[in-house]
Structures are given as structure tokens and as C-alpha cells.
Amino acid sequence: MALQSPSLDIGGAVLVKPTPTSAGRGYWQSVGRRLRRDPVTLVCAAILILLVLASMASPWLGMADPYKTSMLRRLYPLGSPNHWLGTDELGRDMFARLIYGGRLSLFMGVTPVVFALMIGGSLGILAGFVGGKTNMAIMRVMDVFYAFPSVLLAISLSGAMGAGTENTLLSLTLVFIPPICRVSESVTTQVRGFDFVDAAKASGASAFTIVRVHVLGNVLGPILVYATSLISVAIILAAGLSFLGLGVKPPEPEWGLMLNTLRQAIYVNPVLAALPGVMIFITSICFNLMSDGLRAAMDVKA
Amino acid sequence: MTNMLQVRDLHVTFVTPDRTVHAVSGVSFDLARGETLGILGESGSGKSVTLRSILRLHPEHRTRWSGSIKLEGDEILDMAPRALSDLRGQRVAMIFQEPATSFDPVFTIGQQIAETVRRHTGKSDAEAMKRAKDLLEMVRIPSPAQRLKAYPHEMSGGMRQRAMIALALSCNPTLLLADEPTTALDATVQIQVLLLIRELQREFNLGVIFVTHDIGVAVEVSDRIGVMYAGKLVEMAPVERMVDAPQHPYSRGLLASTVHDGMRGQRLESIPGAPPDLAEVPTGCSFAPRCKFVRPDCTATIPSLRDVEAAHAVRCVLAA
Amino acid sequence: MDTLLPIQDRGGPAQPLLLATGLRKHFPVAGGLLGRTTKVVRAVDDLTLSVAKGETLGVVGESGCGKSTVARLLIRLLKPDKGTMVLDGDPVDEPHGITVNELRRQVQMVFQDSYASLNPRLTIAETLAFAPRAHGLPAAEARERVRDLLTKVGLDPASYSTRYPHELSGGQRQRVNIARALALRPRLIILDEAVSALDKSVEAQVLNMLVDLKTELDLTYVFISHDLNVVQYLSDRVLVMYLGKIVELGPVEAIYGNPQHPYTRALLSARPSMDPRKRTHEAPIQGDPPNPIDPPSGCRFRTRCPFAEDVCARVEPPLADTKFQAVACHMRVAGSGHSKAMAA
User: Minimal Cα–Cα distance from C149 to chain B, Å?
Assistant: First the structure.
């Protein structure tokens, strides 16, 4: 161990070297590192990426046309030649419809959360930072929406606005804004009470600068974790709405819709009828586990 | 005075996926009944870990022990869970720094003390409540009958600390462990609690181990003081000797740098540098990098704790 | 846009650097059915103090006395309900005076070390550069200032600039806290329990450094602490607070050598003895510091004072001058009606 001679005594601790730690000590880098080392997160991410790539590349993969119907080839079982996952009630290739449906289902799951994050997150951070009457106004409005169970709210909003992709996106976004707003407000209020925010205020910086530099970096993490956990809920809700006829309209392939149209097939080929449900389950679980992984990675004591 | 507690070569290591921390590295001491041992050290010295090891309070899955802790002949480190549970609260009791988190917020003080009494002595509800009231009187809480029905958050910090002492003494333990119980208290309350502990110790002939970072507090309550640094005991002496003539450079630095009466206008002596990282196992004396008197043989081997006088031991090559 | 040079002295050495008059701050306690205010925490009541240029004013008291509230009022992190502040002759937050932002260029605060005192997501350099950058200093000059600040507090800029707070020890973090307070080259620094969370050996280092910086940078300090020994070491004048009011005020030698108020005496003798042969045998005062909600009428200390009499409950003692210091106690005011007071 190196010995230090106390020369140049500036309050007794001369230009001391800090205790050495491992590299990549920035917070987000360490989060990234932990994520990369977590096997569960990696597997789930791989599955989702595979699905996204497959659905994006579907025109070029030589898959069957998901829209092409055939009255002769209806409800073929799994393992049929040319249709290894069978065909649906209108003779369309199941595999193609599942992959193609993935595009829409994932889109309907992720997009409302992204919008809700932007709107609800901003409102929550505003309410948390400013406090007082603004906080009360925003949060009480949110409480009204929060009082409704999310499924009920989604159904009512979609029912009022009518079916269709855009309306579904809108209603799901509205459903997710209150919970994200609530979490954002809570975290922001907590961070606002810390001394370093007071120190920033005492330095005379504008509120906007303080939020941008000091608050955002500390609240985005927990908000992001919460938001990603909502994606799995969004996928299920979107599928549910479509199942009820309030979401995507036929002939678009969408897993929820497919569950609805394949209902009669339960008596003929139950496995076939369950396939869209399996896909919903897989993607939903993957997002859920990834969100857990993100939370664990961010729960670093450093 | 026979030795009630014997600690021999205690090593405590915390193992996590990221690193291994050697919190306590070879601590040995004795304690007699009716004696107060003050363990003095700064953060990271291992003093709290040592104390908590006596009750085996650390999470089992990531703690490794070795050595021996014998209470009246019974080896604590080997004890089965049932025996350990009987030991805690009955033969050995502990009071902590933060009384607010030591009590369950949804039960009254009376209920919590009575529960402990019932658990260990099998008394009836009414008898246990009576005992609880007597205990609150003993720790000088005003209006004890009313306080029995108070919830922890309804009491001030000083009251809660007294209630915690009452809880600790409810089953007549022979050993009281105190982990910085007055650090979070105001000055006027701290001295009341210190005097109370001293008085109760005399009355019940308790053995007390009092962990603190404040020299004044250690001097007020202790018969002997042990100074810890980087997981080891570096000096152990009767309190008068420790204050008059500390031998270890760390003890001397600590006493010299503590601000007290009459230092105004003088530059404070300070110990340069910072304590070492406990994840590394040192090859020589842990204090060497910061020591004014360091010599080449200090880094060669770890010095042993040797008696320089009767009852005064020092871990330093210079004090031999 | 100035290049953040230190602001010049205006009134000369006789003018107090900071004069706060009649400060009051009450906090409503939400209770009742609709969250209406039912009770009030009277944190600071009618407080007047002045800080002379170049001095260190120590403020001592126990929990609930209001000293932290005073710190935040002086730097305007809290707005007082009543009262005025004057900084070197300029009224603060009033039409013909300086703005709060201008106050903050000259008055800064060092917080107690805790996990919350430094932003864990920013490097040390980013934290230190924040205030100068917010005031318009260009990036290159800000970097230069950060290097300068780190060196001043004894931390090697090359090693510490890119570190994060969790990689530093308590003492190092506190040095950064102090450097942050110096970033705008202030004249007055309020230290709110700045060394309380540190180990004793580190505390000594930081105290030495504070003394050096004060001389080197021509600073004035308001040092708030519950540790009487440290306050005695650092301060020129000392102010003792109890439940939102000043009970005694005077030069450090007078307060510590000849305390007049019963509370000050109790506080001083409550310090643990450093001599095992002269241990404390009796607590100087019983009970806990009371709650600042609904403080006692008249003299707020009377519920714990061994000399309390009727007049103490009826009349609040004014802060009156005695020979060497100012005391708020009926026993020291002639003709107050207290049996121990001198006749008028």
C-alpha cells in the first residue's frame, strides 16, 4: 500500500486520490451493464427482436399472403404441408397471420404507452415540481380517471368513440395517462425534497434548468420502469378490445381479433384457436420480464 | 468478577456477488458482569458488526463467521435457532440508534413490552401489563399508566429511547448491548439517557457493551474502552488510561482531533487520508498509510494486540 | 453579463453584511376533514439578527428550535411570512433593493452531508459547473473554475472531476459541498450542520479547511450546529435558539464563559465530560424539547425551567442587553416581576 507523507496540508487531506472503483461508473452505463448480464432479460429481448424482425421482413421472407383466403383450405391443422401452423376459418395461413398480426399487436401495445409516457410523465413532473394548487388541480383530475378500472375505462372510451385502430390507440393512451402521471408526481415530489435540488435553487438557476439538469435524470428511471411494465398490459387490453369488436377491424390480422374469429374453431381444432392467445401470452410475458429486469438493474445502490 | 462474555478471534465477512467485505478481522475481548465496555470507532471500523454478531443479527446467507463468542460458557456461533431465539431478549438484550424503527407502529408500547414479557416468562396478560408499567416507571417515563396506551409515533425521541430500554430490560437480561443509542438524540436528552443507562447497570449488575463514535459519550459510560479501526481492536485500556495516555497512533489522533473546550484559536490536529477499503485484506498494519510514525516493518506483518501494562493492550510495533 | 467576479463591498466594515429583522415563518399543519389548516408549527417567530462582515456567527439549539428554518430563510429557499432582510445596505426582495437571485450571488449554503446533498447522476465537475453555467459563464471558463474550486478544497481535479458522489467518502463529499457553495464567489456562507454527519477525524480536517478558506477568500460564516464544542471553536459570536426564538446572543467567550440564560447553562452542562474522573452526575434538565406546534405562552422555555414563575407564563421576556450579551429572561431584566430579578 502506498504511503503518503502529509506535506502541503490543505486541511489535512492533500490532493488525495479517491478510492478506485470499477470502470463505467456512470449510472446509465452501469444499468446497461447489468442488463446485458441478465440472462432472463436477454432471452426476452431476443424473442421480441426476432418477432419484430420477422414481422417487418415478412414480405421478403417468402411467407404466404396473410390476406389470401381460400374456401377449400379452411382450418387445416398444424403441420399441414405449406401451412405448418395450419389455416384459419377463412383459409388464410396462420403462421403468416400470426407474424403479421404481431406488427399490429406490438404497435398497439407500445404506442399508447409511449404517448401516455410523454403526456402523463410531463404532467406528473410538472405537478411534482411545482406543487401547491397546480399539483392539486392535476392530481385530482387524474384521480377521477384513476377511479375506473382500466379495462372498464378502455371499453367505455372505445365504445363511445367507435371501433378502429386510431380510436383504440387514443382510448388506451387515455387509460394509461393517469397511472403514469401518478408515479411521475410521486417520484418528482420525492426528488424535489432532496438537498441538491435546494442547492440548485439556491444557485439562482431557472426552474426549467433545474428540472432539466437535476430532476429529470433522477426521475426518468423509475418512471421508465413503471411505463415498461404497462406495455404488457397494453398488449392484452388492445387484444381484448379487438376481441370485443371495439378495436381493430377485420380483415387486419391482430391477435385479439383472431381469437374472436377463431372461436368456432375450438370445437374443430382447439390448438389452432389458442395460437393467437399463446402469442399474446409470450409477448406480454417478455415485456413484463424485461421490465422486471430493468427495475432490478436500476436498483443499484450506487 | 467472572467473565460473563468471552469473544475470541471473531472474523465476520460479508459476501456479495460483487465483492467480499472483511468487516471484522480477529476481535477478542472479555466482559465481566457489572462492567461497561465502550467500543469506540468511526464508520467502517466494524464496531456495530461486532456487536450485532453477538446476537447473530446479520443475514445468514451472506455472512461468514469464524471464531468464538461464549456467553456464560454457551457458544453463540453454534447455537440452534430455538436456543438463539431464547437467548435474544432474555439473556442478552439490545438497544439501537433509531428507536422509531425499533417499535412496531401499529401496536402500543404497552402491548409490545407485554408481548416480550409473555414470550419469555409465560406470565398472564394482566401480569405482563403490570410489569410493563413498572418498567416504564423504572426508566423515568412520566405518567407511565397512560403511556402504556401510547403508540410509538406519539412519543418524542427521548421517550421512545427510554421505552426501548424498558423493553430491553423487561426480561432481566444479564448482558445489554447498546448500538449508538444516543447518537440521534439532542444533547439535553442524551445526557439523561446516558445517566439512566449507568444507573440501571448499577442496579441490575448488568454487563454492558456500548458502541459509539463519540469520545465524550464513551468516557461518561465506560469502565474500559476498546478502540476499533478497520475491523480490528487497536487498543484496549481502562477509561482513565485511555484518556490520559493513549498509546496507539490512531487513538491518539482521534483524541487529539476531537474538538472540545479550550481548543479555540489553535489549528486542529487531524488524521490525514481516509479509512481503508475493507474488501482488501491488508498485508500489514491497516493504519500505516495514515500514520505519522510509520516504519518499514509496519507494512510487513499485521501487528498483534499485546499488553503494554496491566489491562492495557495495544496493536502497534511502537508500543511494545 | 458579468464574468462572475466577486461582488464588491459597499457599506464598509461597520455596516452589517446581513441584517434580518422580525423574521417569522409558520408552517400550517394539515388536519381536519378537508385538509384544512388546524394547527401551525411556529418555526421562527420575530427573529432579528445581524451578521458583521468577516465574522463567524454560530447558531446553536436542539431539534425544533428553528435553526434550519432560519438558514433557509436567510438564503430565501423559504419566503418569510413577515420580516425584512438587508444585504450590505440593500433591501432584499423589495422595490428599491436587490432581487432574490442577486441575493443568492452573495449568499450561499453548505448542506449537511447525506445521500441527498449531491445529485447522484451528475459527475462532480458537472455539479460544480452548474451554478456558474446557469449564470452564463462559458463552458471553458466554467471548467477552469471547477479545477480551481477542487484544488481549493484539497481534491485533485484530475481524479475527482469525473467521479460520481457514490464513489467518494463522506469527507470528500462534504468538500465538494463546500466547493459548490464557493462556485459563485459569495461573500456569506451559511453552513447548516455542515460537519455533523462526518467522523471526528474527518471533521477536524474539514474545520481546518473552513478556517483557511475564510481567511483566503474573505468570507463571512453563519455556522449552524447542535454541537456546542464545534460552534465554540469556530465562532466569534454565538446565538442560542429555543422553539423559534433567540434566548441568548453574544460574544463566544461570554456565552460559554458566563451563560446567563438557564437554557444556555443547561445546554452547556449537558455536554458529555471528557474526564472520567469528573463524570456528570445529574442531568441539567429533564424532559424533551417540546413541539413547536402550540408553544407555551409567555417564555417558551418555562415548562422546563427550574426558575419559572407566574410572570414567565404571562409575559414573554424581551431580548435585553446585559453587560456582555443579550438575554431573553425575566431574571435578568430589572423590574420584570421575577423574584430573582433586580428591582427596577
Answer: 20
Q: Per the CB < 8 Å rule, is B215 touching C204? A: no
Reported confidence tier of residue C34, pLDDT bands at 50, 70, 90: low
Mean pLDDT of B305-310: 86
Q: Which residue of C has its CA nearest to B193?
A: C283
CB crowding B140-150: b at 16 or more within 10 Å, else e: bbeebeebbeb
Q: How many CB atoms lie within 10 A of CB B186?
A: 22
**Alpha carbon distance C131, C128 (integer Å):** 7
Across the interface, whether the CB atoms of C209 and A16 are under 8 A apart is answered no
Question: What local confidence, expressed as pLDDT, does residue C194 receive?
Answer: 93
pTM of the model: 0.86
Contact B270 C205 (CB under 8 A): yes
- Looking at the structure, give the CATH architecture of the domain made up of residues B3-91+204-311: 3-Layer(aba) Sandwich (3.40)
Specify the amino acid at residue A134.
T
Give CA angle at A56 (A50, A61), nearest 5°.
85
Fold annotation for C18-120+164-262: Rossmann fold (3.40.50)
- The full set of domains in chain A, from first to last, is 27-70+78-298 (1.10.3720.10)
- Residue whose C-alpha cell is 466482559: B31
Of C77, C166, C210, the CB nearest to A202: C77
Residues 12-31, chain A: which have Cβ within 8 Å of B? 12-14, 16, 19
Chains contacting A (3 or more CB pairs within 8 Å): B, C
Query: What is the distance in angstroms between the Cα of C326 and the nearest Cα belonging to chain A?
Result: 32
Under an 8 A CB cutoff, do C120 and A27 touch? Answer: yes
Of B95, B40, B52, B47, the C-alpha closest to B213 is: B40
B24 within 8 A of B53, measured Cβ to Cβ: yes
Average pLDDT in chain C:
90
What torsion, rounded to 10 degrees, do the Cα atoms C94, C96, C98, C101 define? 60
**For residue range A67-123, what is the model confidence (pLDDT) as tens digits?**
877 787 777 777 777 777 888 888 888 888 888 888 888 888 899 999 999 999 999
Element (H, E) at C226: none
Segment B78-94 shows an average pLDDT of 89
Q: What is the pLDDT of residues C322-334, one digit of tens each?
A: 889 999 999 988 8
What is the 8-class DSSP label of residue C162? T
Residue A22 has pLDDT above 70, yes or no: no
- The pLDDT of residue A103 is 82
Are the beta carbons of C3 and C137 closer than 8 angstroms?
A: yes
Chain B contact residues (CB < 8 Å to A): 270-274, 276-277, 282-284, 288-290, 292, 294, 299
**Residue spans per domain, chain B:** 3-91+204-311
Which sign, positive or negative, has the C-alpha torsion C74, C79, C81, C86? positive
* Identity of the residue in C121, C151, C180 whose CB atom sits nearest the CB atom of A199: C180
**3 state SS of A297:** helix
Query: C30 and chain A: CB distance < 8 Å anywhere?
Result: no
> Hey, of C105, C117, C119, C169, which one would you mutate to test binding to chain A, going by the most A CBs within 10 A of its CB?
C119
Long-range CB pairs of B157-160 (<8 Å, 24+ gap) are B157/B99, B157/B100, B157/B184, B157/B185, B157/B186, B157/B189, B157/C63, B157/C288, B158/B185, B158/B186, B158/B189, B158/B192, B158/B193, B158/C287, B158/C288, B159/C288, B160/B99, B160/B100, B160/B103
| Closest partner CB to B158 (pick from C169, C252, C288) | C288
Peptide bond into A251 cis (omega under 30): yes
Whole-number pLDDT of residue C244: 92
Compare all CA atoms of chain B with the CA of C278 and give the residue at the minimum distance.
B220
Compute CA distances B191 → A1, C183, C280, C325, whole Å. 42, 40, 8, 27
pLDDT band at A5 (very low <50, low <70, confident <90, very high): very low
